[in-house]
Specification:
215 residues; alpha/beta; Rossmann fold; five-stranded parallel β-sheet; 8 helices; 5 strands; 54% helix; globular
Length: 215
Amino acid sequence: MGDGVLITIEGIDGCGKSTQAALLCEALVARGLPVGPAGAPGTVLREPGGTPAGEAVRDILLHGPDSLAPWTETMLYAAARAELVARVLRPGLAAGRVLVLDRYIDSSLAYQGYARGLGIDAVLAVNAPAVGDAMPALTVVLAVAPATGLGRATGVRDRIEREGIALQRRVADGFAELARRFPQRIRLVDGERPVAAVAADVTALVAPLVEGRGV
């Protein structure tokens, strides 16, 4: 995978992932690091999305029919992920870039594997061919109460947000389980605090890892 580093930001809906991912990119750029894809330096990548095919799948997943079967949902996420890995993540990591990704494989494990009841190991196995060795060096999970996350939602809710707090509670439990399973990679950060305080903790986790690898 070259000398690049992949960092992922995870959590339930409304946990502040997008905000914190953008602030992390800004902090790493300020340190002179090569952040984001070469064609869009300084930018955050997102899942599902990040490629034309991935964005089309995103529209189905977030704004399509409410009646998608859990395995259909899982396979669509895996397909979008395979395209992102092949077209963006592998080339970026091979070129020594620092890639910050808003959601990745752990979202599938928490949402479909745990919350939907498909099984973490089963969903991991489905995603293995898509991801290969393009696993995050570090995953930051922003921990917030489900009521806090839903309370932060603005505008029209997407298909998954419309399922309400019961799903988000199961997803939060799923992320907690993943943190227990993969403690070397996954770090929980209290996302209930002010944005600047959360950002400082996220940067403190990521910066030494990236700089220690000589990127």
